[in-house]
Amino acid sequence: MMNESARNTPPYADPAQLERYAELIVAHGVNVQPGQLLQIASETIHKDLVLAIARKAYERGAKLVVTDLADPRHARLRIERTARDEDLDFLPRFVAARYDELVDEEAATLSLIGSEDPDLMEGVDAKRNNRVRMSRFKSLRRFYDEGINQLKVQWCVAAAATPAWGKKVYPGLAPDAACAALWRDILSMARADRPDCLALWDVHNAKLNARAAKLTSMGLDELRFTGPGTDLVVGLSPQYKFRGGGDKSTRGALFEPNIPTEEVFTTPDYRRTRGHVRATRPFLCNGTMVEGLELGFEGGVIKRLVASKGQEVFSEYTKSDAGASRLGEVALVGIDSPVYRSGKVFQEILFDENAACHIAVGRAYAYCLVGGEAMTDEEKAAVGCNDSSAHLDMMISSEAVDVTGRLRSGGEVPLLKGGSWVGDLA
Amino acid sequence: MMNESARNTPPYADPAQLERYAELIVAHGVNVQPGQLLQIASETIHKDLVLAIARKAYERGAKLVVTDLADPRHARLRIERTARDEDLDFLPRFVAARYDELVDEEAATLSLIGSEDPDLMEGVDAKRNNRVRMSRFKSLRRFYDEGINQLKVQWCVAAAATPAWGKKVYPGLAPDAACAALWRDILSMARADRPDCLALWDVHNAKLNARAAKLTSMGLDELRFTGPGTDLVVGLSPQYKFRGGGDKSTRGALFEPNIPTEEVFTTPDYRRTRGHVRATRPFLCNGTMVEGLELGFEGGVIKRLVASKGQEVFSEYTKSDAGASRLGEVALVGIDSPVYRSGKVFQEILFDENAACHIAVGRAYAYCLVGGEAMTDEEKAAVGCNDSSAHLDMMISSEAVDVTGRLRSGGEVPLLKGGSWVGDLA
């Protein structure tokens, strides 16, 4: 017997909205093309939604839908129980082969986030945990370089609720009710609660594209973030290019890397970062929550680091390689964001990074520099385009934070005041 | 929070017996060695048992446990919804890369059978279904040739109950009770209901090894099966070698390809098969149940084929290639088998083939011929060792069937009478 819709999920979410969400993901998120290979990676708990998405992909002519259904408990089991430390570096070649093939095929790939157990990695050995992450990154290097940075794949990260994640956001509700409430948030922030969802996304995309274009055309030299605990200057390259909204893959298909997305973002010249910054929301690092983080930058590198929770995990993470303690991304989000307006902390970066301005340590997106797609590693290094096995976003704005642009031509221009976009950036 | 045992399964099975079963699978089935890679393939429904098995594998020093958790509904979805027929031939290279790597690594690989929906493939287009199967086989050719036939991997197929499968075996019970009853059968047939389970397996293995050795040393030229609807002669090669019980991998580890196992089996000279045969139990072909099958062989090839159910699916299967309508295996099982004695038809080949003598059309096991591991394809063909993308077992004995051996030296010797082993074969 076939499952014609997201059968097991409807206790938690409106079936019509879920169908629309699946359609949004397939048509707009990965935008599967006729004859194209689609990969869907997800925890097993989302298998009904995965099936509904696969069905829609075949309706659009997908060549094949391959799944990567994971039980996340194996990740912790491995870190805790592997007898020999060096075995933590082992990643089968077929994993790299899989991601290389996504590049060769110019495939589409979807990741559904939302964990059956968001606390799974709490307390796990930070060094061992990070060692596993690094070995995976090294194996997937080509996918990141060509698939993501050269736009050879259409990729999308979207979310699905779980009872345990729901409890994180709605601690006062029972797990099922919390899951249902979180689904309402997810569907609403994805605009899937509206019949004209796809048209709304087109309008939204156009707005983000336009905002990014304006910021690119302004001739910015630096961004300065000021607020409680924060006075941070992020230097930009002369080649900086803001992006926002959908991207276009090498096969010419528009896709949406994140659902939802509210940010415009660019690649800084990491060497010019200076000052101090306070994170305004908690965020996960290698599966562990980091709270109350404060960073001090000197000469583009983190020189001071304190956190009220998760400090060791974050510290270990920034030691992954030289680039892990330098900036790779700066993103601007206004408090008009529906994620911000929801008033919630989702404890999932896909949402929280779309609630506030954020910076990321680690690997930069070369395509946020003019000509970046074709740059060699040497050329990237020469313009301060950061390289690393790491990439971790952290939120740094709120209604108490202003963002000011310093122009290459001299002078300053306010970009966000009290968290809100200023002037024609709104 | 970690799952320290097969947490979600205990409503259906005794936890201590399940733990013992996991231990049997790891220690005796795949016999994971320190530093070895283990793959576990299973439907998602068995994820708790998979985790329990992985934990035991790490305790034995496994380098890494990789899982392949499948939602079987995608198989039907693909066959039904793929827009272009030719896309059904596509199998990503990374799938072959995965199985090639198991060979290169001299890894261990476990398949847990037992479906969340045993009827899933009923009524699906037979040609499209078989097309997908063939493309997969072609991609996994090296794994079958080197991994299985040259014993480079330790492989094991074991079972886990599901409510829907339980209902097939116990139609009068509610799904949960049926699942619990089936688990009792599985654990009992695996001897995991006995504290001395591993020692019992050693004794059982020795018995099967000895029976196989006796049959090998007898100098058999042909096996003749006689009973209602059956008078079948299966010719053997002069190099025939019966096998039964565990095998030894190239890295020197004993392993158990099937849990349970009650058979001794060998590779026939397919060219010498003649007569007619009636299947004594239903069996699955490409996911569809075949019932009431009768076959007529001439010159080693199926020339007549009728079935009361699943005839089209089986017929399509035997047309996969030339070898799919020729014999690749003959196996002897007595009614002392606990699977037979259970009095049940399990509708899963892992069990039903261990309840009765069986033949298989399709690919032969070269290692059932003296020197077979090193034979070229031409050498195999010269001795009637069948090659095919197919391999499908079907049961052909009962208490009403006798098996007689015809000796190369002339004369006949009874092997099974009324389903029971004769003389010192018992």
Task: Write up what this structure looks like.
2 copies of one chain form a homodimer. With about 425 residues, chain A is an alpha+beta fold. Chain A has 2 domains: about 1-190, Thermophilic metalloprotease-like (3-Layer(aba) Sandwich), CATH 3.40.1830; about 220-245 and about 255-425, no CATH class. Helix content of chain A is about 30%, strand content about 25%. Chain A has 13 helices and 21 strands. The first copy, chain A, has helices spanning about 15-30, 45-60, 75-80, 95-105, 125-140, 140-150, 165-170, 175-190, 195-215, 310-320, 340, 350, 375-380, and strands at about 35-45, 65-70, 110-115, 155-160, 220-225, 230-235, 245, 245-250, 255, 265, 275-280, 285, 290, 295-300, 300-305, 325-330, 360, 390-395, 400-405, 410-415, 420. In chain A, the strands form 5 sheets. An 8-stranded antiparallel sheet of chain A has the order 15-14-11-6-5-19-20-21, with helices on one face. Chain A has a 5-stranded antiparallel sheet with strand order 7-10-16-17-18, with helices on one face. Chain A has a 4-stranded parallel sheet with strand order 2-1-3-4, covered by helices on one side. In chain A, β12 and β13 form a beta hairpin. The longest helix of chain A has 21 residues, at about 195-215. The model of chain A is unreliable at about 1-10 (pLDDT under 50). Chains A and B meet through α2, β2, α3 and α4 of A and α2, β2, α3 and α4 of B.
